[in-house]
Write a sequence for this structure.
């Protein structure tokens, strides 16, 4: 576990230390820091580990962030009380490669789980998994930016005693300026997780869509609200979650920033009722 964390920390430092290309893409993708530069990666650790399946930014950039997340799931259909509490620490780094391209890496550094099933309680901690992605701006105007991306889920997970889980994700993200203080962003993700246990592979297709609106009274502070939808189309069609979201993001000194995200699922078969996330980031 320690070796995995150290390797991820070294990868983040190398990613940020390499020379970065800088180019302006108009007002839709400002070169300087802007608080309304989402979306913030959300979702549950189980359904979207290491941001796998979470719609990313539509504009290139370089930054490093740490997300501290808490989740609560109550299985009300059980004859006795059954529920889970999950706490997760996730690190993510982005590095701009050229005027319109960038790479990203993310990893769940530590995940703590408390589960109670009819009075039988247990706990556990784990490291992983991780993801690596490549992002490219496909179209940009003075008021809008559209990007495509590919992301891979790396089978690094100490919580699994046998078998592995990997996968590939393709998607697109968009950002549009609605006015001097308003912006909208979101996108579409199509994740293909693959689980291999005992030599048997089980795959699936999990589409997700996200949309949100930002209000920024000044460049260093912004509020946002929106909703995400996640489903499965293979091996069986099902609605996983409909989750309204709201939060804020604010700039501090020396390139540091803070953000807060609250999500509450209102429909779907994912038993998680609520997720709270605190982000601490640095933009060089």
């Amino acid at each position: 576990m320690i070796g995995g964390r150290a390797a991820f920390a070294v990868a983040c430092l190398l990613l940020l230390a390499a020379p970065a290309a800088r180019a302006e893409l108009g007002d839709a993708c400002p070169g300087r820091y802007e608080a309304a530069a989402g979306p913030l990666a959300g979702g549950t650790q189980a359904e979207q580990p290491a941001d796998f399946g979470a719609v990313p930014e539509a504009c290139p950039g370089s930054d490093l962030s740490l997300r501290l997340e808490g989740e609560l799931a109550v299985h009300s259909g059980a004859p006795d009380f059954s529920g889970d509490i999950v706490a997760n620490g996730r690190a993510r780094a982005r590095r701009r490669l050229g005027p319109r391209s960038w790479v990203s890496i993310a990893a769940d550094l530590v995940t703590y789980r408390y589960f109670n099933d009819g009075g039988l309680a247990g706990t556990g901690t784990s490291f992983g998994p991780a993801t690596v992605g490549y992002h490219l701006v496909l179209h940009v105007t003075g008021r809008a930016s559209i990007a495509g991306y590919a992301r891979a889920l790396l089978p690094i997970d100490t919580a699994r005693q046998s078998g592995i889980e990997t996968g590939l994700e393709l998607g697109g993200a968009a950002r549009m300026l609605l006015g001097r203080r308003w912006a909208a962003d979101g996108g579409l993700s199509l994740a293909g997780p693959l689980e291999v246990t005992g030599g048997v592979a089980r795959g699936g297709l999990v589409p997700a869509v996200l949309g949100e609106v930002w209000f920024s009274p000044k460049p260093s502070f912004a509020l946002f609200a929106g909703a995400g939808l996640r489903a499965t189309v293979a091996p069986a069609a099902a609605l996983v979650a409909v989750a309204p979201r709201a939060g804020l993001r604010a700039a501090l000194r020396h390139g540091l920033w803070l953000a807060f995200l609250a999500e509450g699922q209102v429909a779907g078969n994912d038993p998680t009722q609520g997720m709270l996330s605190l982000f601490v980031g640095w933009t060089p």
Observations:
- The helical segments are 2-17.
- The chain has a mean pLDDT of 87.
- DSSP finds one helix and 14 strands in the chain.
